[in-house]
Amino acid sequence: MDALARLAESFIGLFQEGADFFVALLTGIVPLLLVLLTFVNALIRFIGPERIDRFAVFAARPGIAFLPLRYLVLPVLAVFFLTNPMAYTMGRFLPERYKPAFYDSAVSFVHPPLGIFPHVNPGELFVYAGIAAGLTKIDLPLGDLAIRYLLVGLVVILIRGIVTEAITAIMMGRRTNDGDSEDSVAGARA
Fold it and tell me: What gap in Å lies between CA 134 and CA 116, rounded to an integer?
């Protein structure tokens, strides 16, 4: 009977730990996220969504000079202002050939700014919080981690965007060439 009572206490204890964690989130990170989301929405209204949209159209221009705009600036703005997963919709202003690379850049940037801007992807904050808890235990500063994580993320999204654009161009070229060869073979048979 004693074992059954201990099992019941352990079972309830599991839910008590979950409830304690929930209260910690509710009194810690949730108010911070609400204030950040309110600030970002106010900033979007102040800047004007049409200006943000015009910038996206400008970044869609062809040429090497626009690569940093498409795969560095645009994903950063999209993730900061629209947050995850809404940030990916900014790709609608880009031609089809740039959409996969923009998506790759944007999806790769939803984690790196979490240490400084937790509003961008609050559902994944636990990843950064786990790393931060380890650093806090060994008395290392969190600001350095947050800045380095952000800077590395910026380099990575630019590289990924450029590489994905090149791969997309190759794949689209193959699809066009395969379609041409199928049409010519079909025409030769007729």
Answer: 17
Three-state DSSP class for 135? helix
Is the pTM higher than 0.70?
no
C-alpha dihedral sign at 68, 74, 77, 79 = negative
Q: Measuring CA to CA, how many Å separate 75 from each of 4, 5, 39, 59?
A: 55, 55, 19, 11
Which ranges of the chain does DSSP label H, i.e. alpha helix? 2-27, 29-47, 49-59, 67-68, 74-82, 99-108, 125-137, 142-189
Peptide bond before residue 113 is cis, with ω within 30 degrees of 0: no
How many Å separate Cα 121 from the centre of its chain? 7
Q: What is the DSSP letter of 62?
A: -
Tens digit of each residue's pLDDT (9 = 90 or more) over 21-42: 888 777 877 787 778 778 777 8
